[in-house]
Amino acid sequence: AQSVTQLGSHVSVSEGALVLLRCNYSSSVPPYLFWYVQYPNQGLQLLLKYTTGATLVKGINGFEAEFKKSETSFHLTKPSAHMSDAAEYFCAASWTSGSRLTFGEGTQLTVNP
Amino acid sequence: GAVVSQHPSRVICKSGTSVKIECRSLDFQATTMFWYRQFPKKSLMLMATSNEGSKATYEQGVEKDKFLINHASLTLSTLTVTSAHPEDSSFYICSASREREAAYEQYFGPGTRLTVT
Lengths: 113, 117
Fold this sequence. Notes:
The complex is a heterodimer.
Chain A: E1 3-5, E2 10-14, E3 19-21, E4 24-26, E5 32-38, E6 44-50, E7 56-58, E8 64-68, E9 73-78, E10 87-94, E11 102-103, E12 107-112
Parallel strand pairs in A: 2-12
Antiparallel strand pairs in A: 1-4, 3-9, 5-6, 5-10, 7-8, 8-9, 10-11, 10-12
Chain B: E1 4-7, E2 10-13, E3 19-25, E4 30-38, E5 44-51, E6 57-58, E7 67-73, E8 76-81, E9 90-98, E10 107-108, E11 112-116
Parallel strand pairs in B: 2-11
Antiparallel strand pairs in B: 1-3, 3-8, 4-5, 4-9, 5-6, 7-8, 9-10, 9-11
């Protein structure tokens, strides 16, 4: 079955440090891939997406992600964490028409001063 | 563009009553809308997919008679939780995909916190 796995339900970094949130998908067919951020009691905001073309994708708030087909991965990075980056992050994939998304379990990012 | 709203943002209802949650695409026509449920500290669980003018497609294990979904127009979908019970308390999020959009993107509403007492 097609699935999305986020390694690490909690990630803690210091302010100014590199942020790395991991996402892998399981399928022989590469999906469209998305990263969303969720702040407490709010909906999801799209950070970035990969559909086709360049495998390094830049998103909002300084985040970027690289699609690596050979590793079936789409890890999210940010060079320097900011306190406002503390939130829940979801990786999601879509393999079908009609936009149906499969979500990972989420990673809670904590940024320490 | 691509803003989705939900109303209400929070609702408290008594056990046995029904509650309706609205999901609107404010600046685009949404051919497909999705309803999710999110438990605390958990990921989103897809409940159903609805297309304008047709019956919703429910995910396995979701009671269609309990969670009534109506997608009457290209900008409005409603979720009615019928005969609500405390175990229905949750955060409900809708999303919409834009007509003829090729990138499979969903635009999410801000969510509705339902508490059943």
